[in-house]
Predict the structure of Cation/h+ exchanger.
Amino acid sequence: MTPRPATRIVRNAITLAMAVALCAWSMEIPIDSSWQVAGAINITLAATLLCGFLTAELLAHLGIPKITGYILAGVVAGPHVTQFLDVDTVEKLQLINEIALSFIALHAGAALDRTLLSGRSLALGLNLAFQCLLVPLIVFGAIMVTAPFFAFTAQITQAQLLALALLSGIIAIARSPSSAMAIITECRARGPFTETALGITVAMDVLVIVLFTAALALLSPLLDGSRATGWHQAGVLGLELAGSLTMGALLGMGINAFYKRVGKDHALFLLFIAFTVTRLSVLTGHQLSAFTALHLSLEPLLICIAAGFVVRNATPFGEELEGDLMRLSLPIYVLFFSVAGASLDLGALAICWPLALVLATSRAAGLAISTRLAGRMANLPAPERRLAWMAHLTQAGVAIGLTQIIARKDPLTASYLTTLTLAVITINQFIGPVAFKRALVLTGEEGKDRR
């Protein structure tokens, strides 16, 4: 017999209160030996999973996406609130987080059905083109006009403001495939709107890296007087992208071979794949740097997306792979987004929230204009044209990583860019999932995936 909603709410609230009390008690236990450190990390991991799950279940009764509950639980547990997860613990959990991201990327690739996407090729192309052009332009203009009025940016030079505005505009088109997949999985959404949104999200995270590197090459004379370094970085980037996509295609064929020979129980294999890709990418980058003059590194996110896409569209096991990944997704998403919540920098938001709010608002406006223009030119249904921008608000991973590239050229500009980017991500990670879930409900694609 299924418990009534009110009973479930009370039960989950009591369990969450007990879990929080246990966490508070565990924080008072002194750590005196290495085995206690290991035990404390295990308890922290388990408590994070439990509290994230229960928080999400409670908020779900209010119509709030579960991913928001996971993130909120992480924020409360993190170093800026209760410090149950301190900075050192969050750092120790990053390996698990990277493995989870590789798993989610594999899931994103496996969800991209070429048959559905081919019917939306015009819409995909127009969306990518308009968003790559209009979103950076609108964000750039908003920062250049308003930055002198904020204490956060009033003291930087005109060249640094130009670099900050241009790079922030390009970072504004970065997305979060992990957040998109979490919402799609939770809503069990399927259909042309869902496929188009996911396709744009995945493609944009590749394009933003290319555009950012090109912009950095153009800005080199302003930042450090160099004209060669940026273009050298662009060449290295091309090799990294080609290498990552090639490795992903090979991995996809390897997964196909495994599925042919093993009829069931693929869960452990898929987790092993996520772990292997994460560690081998780092190892390969170190080896290439040691034996060549190029500092190359393969990108686990691209490798896993390419592998999932190949299995889905070039083998008979695409549906089976996606089903296996969906069954494993709950603990992965809870852990990943809870740790992501703990990693959000509330300090950065406190420092520059007015400018971050301007950037987030101008970014949303750029997305709304771009998706509406693309939808009209591609003759998409009116509800999709009106709601498409709501699928693209979330940001994470790649946006943060891009800010680190500029640190080698101008640490001061990099510090401003990192602080502002983290503040905007904090805003978008709370607003984006709610907006995307609402869009899926309004387009009628929620619950269409019956697997």
Observations:
- The mean pLDDT is 81.
- The chain has two domains: 5-93, 100-442.
- Residues 100-442 form a domain with the Na+/H+ antiporter like fold fold (CATH 1.20.1530.20).
